[in-house]
Design a protein that fits this description.
4-stranded antiparallel beta sheet; 114 residues; single chain
């Protein structure tokens, strides 16, 4: 199994508008047929112990919200097709609409230790 993970740090001032956009965006991602499903998660730092284990520092926690999307990928070739044919086109609207009021970090995960 392959997961394409996108972590978004969204400034509070745009959160509602961004979340509305994100729902449409995830549907557009799925429409490419490069992904078989998607799940949206919201970071919940209040559930972590207060021992510095948060992934983001307290300044960011007070100014932004983290959302993580897991896109399940059927194969490496599907993921490569997404990067080659769709990624630029699907990422551009968020940059145009929201500019520097959000940050994205992407990574690819494979199930297992190999």
């Amino acid at each position: 199994m392959i997961i394409y993970e996108v972590t978004l740090e969204i400034d509070f001032e745009i959160i509602e508008e961004f979340q509305n956009w994100l729902i449409e965006h995830v549907n557009e991602m799925l429409a490419t047929r490069c992904f078989t499903s998607a799940e949206i998660f919201t970071e919940t730092p209040k559930l972590l112990p207060a021992d510095g284990a948060n992934s983001r520092d307290s300044n960011h926690l007070n100014q932004s919200k983290a959302v993580v999307i897991h896109y399940k990928v059927g194969s490496e070739s599907d993921l490569n097709e997404y990067f080659l044919r769709h990624a630029s086109r699907l990422r551009a609207p968020a940059v145009r609409q929201f500019g520097a009021k959000f940050r994205a970090k992407r990574r690819v995960l494979k199930l297992g230790l190999s």
